[in-house]
Amino acid sequence: MKELAQILWIGGSPCAGKSTLAVTLAQRYGLTHYSCDDALLLHLRRSNPSTHPMLHKLSNSSWNELWTRPVERQIREELAFYREELPLILEDLRAFSPDTAVIAEGTALLPDLVAPLLHDRRRGVWLLPSVSFQREHYARRPWVGDILRQCADPERAFDHWMRRDSGFADTVEASAKARDLSVLRVDGTQSVEEMTAIATDVLCLSAS
Known about the structure:
Blueprint: E1 7-12, H1 18-29, E2 32-35, H2 36-46, H3 53-59, H4 63-68, H5 71-94, E3 102-105, H6 111-114, E4 124-129, H7 131-139, H8 142-148, H9 154-178, E5 182-186, H10 192-202
Parallel strand pairs: 1-3, 1-4, 2-3, 4-5
Protein name: AP2/ERF domain-containing protein
InterPro entries: AP2/ERF_dom, P-loop_NTPase
GO molecular function: DNA binding; DNA-binding transcription factor activity
């Protein structure tokens, strides 16, 4: 479709390297970077509990409440959260000039939601971390410890968190493959430069 034809899409699981890849590609190819994470607070201000119930429910939950939910429920509610947010993301993207090449990245960019927007399936890629990479990556981040200390059982909360992300990744991978969309598995063995080269090829980018 012609609308949003200038957008490149990077979706996938949390902590898979989406932002790093998007920033690198934006700098290299003169693209405008749009981060779904950075826009979340603005989306909350533009939404309301009646039309975006899951968006408000999860955003107003404590860390303990979030990570003590059953894992399957976490996955289900996270998907609902992003489905509610996507129309707000699309409002932002439609505000860009059609002449502005944009690279949009975020976990909210689910394959089944983005696929109808693609005029060429090569305009999108989804990054998914291996289980071991995901756990090691999270464990090294100081802010993760800050969150877990607010939970009644930090060890159980972390296990639920990781299982949630793993299950979410499996759901995204199945959805992307069902639509013949590109998936990149991230396991920590490839450098940022190597991942950038792979994504450049997948997205058919070239220097102007």
